[in-house]
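tool_call: predict_structure(chain=1)
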Amino acid sequence: MLLKWLLSIVIVVAVLGGLQPLLARHFRLGRLPGDLTVRRGGRDWHLPFTSTVLMSLLAWLILRWL
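tool_result:
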């Protein structure tokens, strides 16, 4: 039973990770209010707090549906 859930979580994370560039283009993931971009030492650091919450909610809904 645990192996089934672990495999499901790995698959969902892999699918969402693969779809992230497409989702970012169409749904502005990574540029939502609450997502931070910090420039330090000539480098940009992206901290997508809101996008992470939305992706987690989507993963939860997908797993709930399974």
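agent: The first strand starts at residue 35 and ends at 40. Proceeding to next step.
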